[in-house]
Specification:
80% of the residues lie in helices and 0% in strands. The chain is mostly helical and 401 residues long. Helix 3 runs antiparallel to helix 15 (341-364). It is globular and about 60 Å long.
């Protein structure tokens, strides 16, 4: 018999805080990209995007190693290991004078932060299941999205009063406080009798188990499409608002307002998902995501940027749809993987990220003087995601017929 599922406020807040270390390490750096590039001798400003996309690559690879190990050794020890790697990588970032070494440091930061990102999802799966799990993940994502609301403003403040290196130091202090809270207050969620004995076959057996689930594969694929196209926005937003629209001073506030759009959607999702189901809500959101982006492409095919107000309206609608997708897609992929939650969350995160990074780097290379390539990317991958959804819905109908 399935155990009753009750809301645990401190647990949700702590999981959101763990994930927020990731968001802060990414978003607080956005206003500093030109200054970091100039300090490290970058001649092509477009290369600054790698400071954002490569941390995601590190997260992808970190998840597939640290996540499965947590199935054998427990969740908490692997969070500590990941944070130690993050500290070491941060020291590299603030001491180097080479852009290439900085990229290595950012990738290593992502590798270390992967533990917080993927193991927090594993811990949620240890404690919850079904649509209630989707509700909890939505609430966590909502709190997690409060960080992008303040992170660029915080980053700009630190640059104005100190220097770009101070952003890395702040992230370290913030991370230490969260890890202390985690150490003092969070019990281990994976009981010893439920752990998978460590062996050389751990990764192979877990991966084989993951790929037996059509649902896990399909929703991981959709997640990669959506994450990849959204990652283009993250890596090019500074360039779009500061260079194409000459709104350098307003960038932190614009970024924050759009993050609120996603946060509102995740809040609504947490209220609606148990009633309507994560599959139905995610399908409607995916349809809206594809429709909004295709509409922009049709209206502004010339490549001339619209007024900032029209652009922000499209972004807000697009990201409102994203807010209904992130938590639900993760929950849909994790639902059949409760018995291998660590490696399941790891492979889900790894595959979606490995799909997302090349998508982001490729599309981002076209975002130079127009926002159009960004929305073309939204459209292409939104339609691909919708097609996978339609295949899954058809399969579900055949199974229930």
């Amino acid at each position: 018999m399935e155990k009753p599922q009750h809301f645990k406020f401190e647990f949700v807040a702590l999981m959101a805080s763990l994930m927020s270390i990731v968001a802060l390490s990414i978003d607080a750096l956005l206003p500093a990209l030109p200054e970091i590039g100039a300090s490290l001798g970058v001649t092509n400003p477009e290369n600054n995007q790698f400071l954002i996309t490569m941390i995601f690559l590190g997260i992808g690879f970190g998840q597939v190693i640290l996540g499965p190990l947590s199935d054998s050794f427990g969740r908490k020890p692997l969070v500590y290991v990941g944070f130690l790697i993050f500290i070491f990588a941060s020291i590299i970032c603030v001491t180097t004078k080479s852009f290439e070494v900085m990229i290595v440091g950012r990738t290593m930061q992502g590798f270390g932060l992967a533990s917080a990102r993927t193991i927090s999802i594993s811990m949620v799966r240890d404690e919850f299941s079904g649509d209630y799990m989707a509700k909890i993940i939505s609430i966590i994502v909502m709190f997690f999205l409060l960080v992008p609301v303040i992170a660029p403003t915080l980053g700009q403040f630190l640059i104005n009063f100190f220097n770009w290196e101070s952003i890395f130091y702040f992230n370290l202090v913030f991370g230490v406080l969260i890890i202390l809270w985690f150490w003092l207050r969070q019990p281990e969620t994976l009981a010893k009798e439920k752990r998978i004995k460590f062996s050389s076959h751990l990764f192979i057996d877990g991966t084989r188990e993951f790929f037996k689930s059509t649902d896990a594969i399909a929703f991981t694929l959709i997640s990669g499409f959506i994450t990849g196209s959204f990652m283009v926005y993250l890596s090019t937003s500074q360039q779009i608002f500061q260079e194409q629209y000459n709104l350098a001073d307003m960038f932190p506030y614009i970024f924050a307002s759009l993050a609120i759009s996603i946060g509102l959607a995740t809040f609504l999702n947490s209220r609606l998902v148990v009633k309507y189901g994560m599959l139905r809500i995610a399908f409607v959101a995916c349809t809206a995501y594809a429709f909004i982006s295709v509409l922009y492409v049709l209206l502004f095919w010339s490549g001339h940027n619209p007024s900032i107000y029209i652009l922000l309206s499209f972004f807000a609608l697009q990201f409102f749809a994203v807010g209904f997708l992130f938590g639900n897609l993760r929950a849909l992929a994790m639902q059949p993987l409760g018995h291998i939650a660590g490696i399941g969350a790891a492979i889900n995160g790894f595959l979606s990220t490995v799909l997302a990074v090349p998508i982001a780097n490729y599309i981002g290379s076209f975002v130079k003087s127009s926002v159009l390539p960004l929305f073309v990317g939204f459209s292409v991958f939104g339609i691909l995601a919708l097609l996978v959804f339609l295949v899954m819905k058809r399969k579900a109908k055949l199974l229930t017929a």
